[in-house]
Specification:
The complex is a heterodimer of chains A (265) and B (295). Chain A has 265 residues and is mostly helical. Chain A is 69% helix and 2% strand. Chain A starts with 12 loop residues before the first helix and ends in a 7-residue tail after the last helix. Chain B has a 6-stranded mixed sheet with strand order 5-6-7-3-8-9, with helices on both faces. In chain B, strands 11-12-10-13 form a 4-stranded antiparallel sheet, with helices on one face. In chain B, helix 3 crosses helix 4. Chain B is elongated. In chain B, 38% of the residues are buried. The chains are: A mainly alpha (265), B alpha/beta (295).
């Protein structure tokens, strides 16, 4: 008797990843709650705040127009909500429903399943970032710097990937599906507020120092660099990206060590 | 080669011994039923075989592989219906079966599997519109679409109404005709009686009986009971049988020789010009034997 089960050739990961990605996208768009929370919230915040403050200027950032700061900060908010919040709420829900255990009962490799899940949320975050940018340009007269596109894409990729890893990690601490929104919002909203998502936070303030420990402020500032009218050059923010990536790696380690496929006993 | 081999299997959760030295084999193409009360260790054994939990001690082989390390290659050859497991409500039957099929090297056609479980009419309906029984049949379709050699069915018909249960039995009998090996756990003795080639009864983590549905627990040798209404105007003492019990006007006589007893009783009845109203010959049911074994 040998330990290896003989079988035909397994299906390639690439084909499986594509079909899983399609399933994840269908799942997202067919669930009105997640689609509304993820998409409508950031756009609603953009419209409310940018309209309320349409004539204001921000002294701390060199007297720039409010929308020029607000659009990148809402892009950052969109990345958090599409990648971090979605995953931190969806994975405990799927675990408790037994959906993850069901996946584990098939030959679908975990890396393909999780890869498609992450990729799907990154795509949603990208779509959201594009919509917010277009609305900002079209409605609020935000200036877009085409020459910084490469830096913006890199910032987006690092931020989105790190947020996904952190979302998976936090999801492993959520005891059950009902507790997920409470746990996630308790961690997330205070940090989002002090990091300057809804109003700019002075770089030298105590709040800014506390917020600098967490990745959220670094994401906002790195995205803002792509929209900052007072700077020139490609706007690669290596310092911010390094902090974001470090959080992402830490999240990934925790997620891999703690990830469970089965509901709590 | 056996499809499943279990040798002296032990499983402890902390200080609780859930499985305490269980051994059995399942031959290829056999329908094997694991019976036992809640908490007897059935699901623990099945989940060890499915690769969901590690064992504490003992040997386990599933299709020649160790389920703890068999990984993807083993899962490609096994179909699993979990005891209770949600299904994504946002997909249609067809989308789920098709997506699941993609993970297997040589799946069965989606339409054929959906037809097999009787969900063809629901092919394009979302899961959330399916009844509980229909979702359970979808479970079965998802387990079968990879064309597995071995199918685990953990309480596949719990919560079904009687007609849905009969429909599922036909389905499981079809699996046997396809040459699949089936490991079934169930609470329903009728189900085990109808489907299983062989039964193992588990109680408190140990095997208490093993056999075919007709012989398990000495069922084939157990006494037969003859039962009828006591004819009016007679008492038990008038009957040509000793050890007769009367309960609510009905006489029950237990005998290892039912033919002889019946001959004597019917001769007596004819001689006394009467009929034995409500005459029945009762064999102990699988349920009687099971209840005796797991008491």
């Amino acid at each position: 008797m040998s330990d290896t089960a003989v079988s035909g050739t397994s299906v390639s990961d690439v084909g499986l990843l594509r079909s899983q990605l399609v399933m994840e996208q269908k799942r997202f768009w067919r669930n009105p709650t997640s689609a509304i929370f993820t998409f409508v919230f950031p756009i609603m915040f953009l419209v409310i705040f940018a309209s309320l403050n349409s004539n204001d200027r921000i002294k701390d950032l060199g007297d720039i127009r409010f929308a020029q700061y607000y659009v990148p900060s809402i892009i950052a908010f969109g990345i958090f909500s599409a990648c971090f919040v979605n995953l931190a709420i969806a994975t405990p829900y799927r675990r408790e429903m037994g959906l993850l255990k069901r996946v584990r009962s098939t030959p679908l490799p975990p890396r393909v399943f999780l890869g498609a899940l992450v990729l799907s949320n990154v795509l949603i975050g990208a779509l959201l970032a594009i919509i917010i940018t277009v609305v900002g340009i079209a409605v609020y007269d935000v200036h877009f710097y085409g020459a910084r596109l490469l830096a913006m894409i890199l910032t987006f990729a690092v931020s989105a990937a790190s947020c996904c890893a952190l979302g998976l990690a936090v999801g492993t601490f959520v005891p059950n599906a009902d507790a997920a929104p409470a746990v996630v919002n308790f961690i997330y909203f205070p940090i989002v507020f002090i990091s300057g998502t809804f109003f700019p936070v002075n770089q030298t303030s105590v709040l800014a120092h506390i917020a600098s420990v967490f990745p959220v402020r670094h994401v906002i500032l790195a995205v803002f660099a792509g929209f900052d009218p007072l700077r020139s050059g490609a706007s690669f923010e290596w310092g911010h990206l390094a902090v974001i990536a470090a959080w992402g790696v830490a999240g990934l380690v925790v997620a891999i060590r703690r990830f469970r496929w089965e509901p709590a006993q | 080669m056996s499809a499943v081999e279990v040798v002296d299997l032990h499983k402890s959760y902390g200080s609780v011994d859930a499985v305490r030295g269980v051994s059995f084999e399942i031959a290829e193409g056999e329908v094997f039923a694991l019976l036992g009360p809640n908490g007897a260790g059935k699901t623990t054994i099945v989940e060890i075989l499915e690769g969901f939990r590690p064992r504490t001690a003992g040997g386990v082989r599933v299709l020649g592989a160790d389920p703890e390390t068999g990984g993807r290659a083993l899962r490609e050859r096994v179909g699993i219906v979990l005891q209770s497991c949600g299904i994504d409500p946002f997909f249609t039957v067809e989308e789920l079966v098709r997506a699941t099929a993609k993970a297997y090297p040589s799946p069965r056609p989606v339409a054929e599997v959906v037809e097999l479980v009787g969900l063809t009419e629901k092919l394009h309906e979302r899961v959330k519109t399916l009844s509980g029984g229909q979702q359970r049949r979808l479970d079965l379709a998802l387990a079968l679409v990879g064309d597995p050699e071995l199918v685990f069915l953990d309480e596949p018909t719990t919560g079904f109404d009687p007609s849905a249960r009969r429909a599922s039995w036909d389905l499981i009998e079809n699996l046997c005709r396809l040459g699949k090996t089936v490991l079934l756990t169930t609470h329903y003795m009728e189900e085990a009686q109808k489907l299983a080639d062989r039964i193992v009864v588990i109680a408190q983590g140990r095997i208490v009986a093993e056999g075919t549905p007709d012989t398990i627990g000495g069922r084939d040798h157990a006494a037969t009971v003859v039962r009828f209404a006591l004819p009016a105007g007679y008492s038990v003492a008038d009957l040509p049988a000793r050890e007769a019990r009367v309960d609510d006007g009905f006489v029950s006589i237990s005998t290892p020789q039912p033919t002889k007893l019946l001959h004597e009783l019917t001769a007596w009845a004819l001689a006394h010009g009467g009929e034995l109203a409500g005459l029945e010959v009762l064999r102990p049911s699988l349920e009687d034997v099971y209840l005796e074994l797991t008491r």
